[in-house]
Fold tRNA-specific 2-thiouridylase MnmA.
Amino acid sequence: MRVLAAMSGGVDSSVAAARAVAAGHEVIGVHLALSQDAQQTRETARGCCSLEDSADARRVCDKLGIPFYVWDFSDRFKEEVIGDFIDSYAVGETPNPCLRCNEKIKFSALLERGIALGFDAVATGHYAVLDSDGHLRRSPDDKKDQSYVLGVLSRQDLDHCLFPVGDTEKPKIREEAAAYGFSTAAKPDSYDICFIPDGNTQAFLGRSIGLRPGMIVDQDGTELREHDGAWNYTIGQRKGLDIKTPAADGRPRYVTDIDAATGTVTVGPREALAVSRIEADRLKFLHPDMDGQLRCEVQVRAHGSVVGCTVSVDKQADRMVLDLDEPLHGVARGQAAVLYLPTDDGLGDIVLGSGTICGTD
C-alpha cells in the first residue's frame, strides 16, 4: 500500500513510520503545520506542533530513507479546532480540542488530501488496535490507550487507518526507537493545548470571547458573587471560584451548571455533580451494533471511569440517551461519550461509536 505516515515529531509516530516501512509499504512522512506562527521549541510550544517537532520528524524520515513533507493545515485548524474550542466555551460547553483535531485534521483533512493524491492509508502513532474485522479496540497498554480520542472518527476514516504501535506497550516503543537510532527515543510526550503556548486557557478565552459578566449562585439561586465570564468555569471545578462566604454546611463547592445565555454559574456540593442520564448528539457509528437499544459501557473523558449503561440510539434524530448503571460525576456538555462493547476474547474492548454530550440529568 501507499501509506502517509503522520509524523508529529514524537517517538510513537517515529516507530509507527518505521513499522510501516518494515511491513513493505511505500511510505511518505508528513508533518502537519497547524500554526502560521509555530514556536521554535517544545518548551515554549508546550504541545506537539513546534518547529523543533518538525525537525525531529524530518530526521526520522532521513534515517528511514523515506520522503518527508510539511503540509500546511493552519487555516483549517484555526477554523475547525480553535474556532470550535472558542465557540463551545462561549455557549457553556467544555470541549476537548484534541478530539476535534483528530476528527477534523489529523484524519479527515489528511485522508482527504492523501486519497486525492493516490494514497491508501494514514499511519499514526496512536495507541489503539484495528482487529481483523476492522473493529476499533482498546490498546493492551491501558495507561496509553487512545481509543477514546479516536472514537469521534467516522467509519470511512477508520477504513483508511493504520495504528502500527497500538498493540505494544510504551516502554517497548522507546526501546525500538533507540534501536533505530531515532533522536525521539527519549523525547517526552506532548501535553497541554498546543495553540495556547503559555498554558493559560482562561486568558486565551478572555481575549477570544471578551468580558461577559454574570453571577455565581448557589442551588437555591442565592447570588454569591459576580464573575467576568462563564467561560472561566467548567463543570466539576472546585478551585478558583473565589467565593468569600463559606457554604452553610462548610463543605467545598463545585460548579454544577453553566448557563452561558444568562451568564449564571451554579455551585453546589459534590453530590450535585452526580449524573445518571446522558443525552448526546453528533453521533459517530463505528460498529453495526450501535443501533436501537443496547447494553454497553461508556467513557466520557480520555482517562475517565467506565460505567455500564443502557443506550437508546435514534439514528434519524442523530441523538442517543444513556441511562447509567451508576452515577458519573462532573460530566459536562461538549465532552464526548464513547461507547464500548466489552469482550472476553482476550483483546481490548470494541468501540461502538460516540456522541457529543448535549445534556445531563
Observations:
- The mean pLDDT is 92.
